[in-house]
Amino acid sequence: MAAATAQEALLVHAGAGELYARLLCEFEPAAVLPFLQAHAAYRVELVLPHTQRFGVDDAQARRALLQLSSPNCCSVILKFSPQ
User: Fold this and answer.
1) Positive or negative: CA dihedral 23, 25, 31, 36
2) How far is CA 44 from the centre of its chain?
3) Which pTM value belongs to this model?
């Protein structure tokens, strides 16, 4: 388990998680939520703009990112987000 944690930390430091998430948003939007649920190797504040830029429609993915960035913001932001 410690090796996995160190590996995740290295990916976050290198920005690989954000890059992979951006590529998923652009080329494989349906894979964004499974990636977010399975990994912690990304910084929420850097991935959220990609979901918006590439129009990732998966409300669950956006909600997961919003809750990670600020647990109190979801209800307000999602209320104004297009469905």
Assistant:
1) positive
2) 5
3) 0.64
DSSP E strands, 1-83 = none
Angstrom distance (rounded) from CA 62 to CA 1:
28
- d(Cα 17, Cα 76) in Å, to the nearest integer? 27
pLDDT in tens, 9-18: 666 666 888 8
Given a contact cutoff of 8 angstroms between Cβ atoms, the answer to whether 36 and 61 are in contact is yes
Q: Closest Cα to residue 27, out of 54, 65, 57, 45?
A: 54
Q: Do residues 66 and 37 lie in contact, with contact meaning Cβ atoms separated by under 8 Å?
A: no
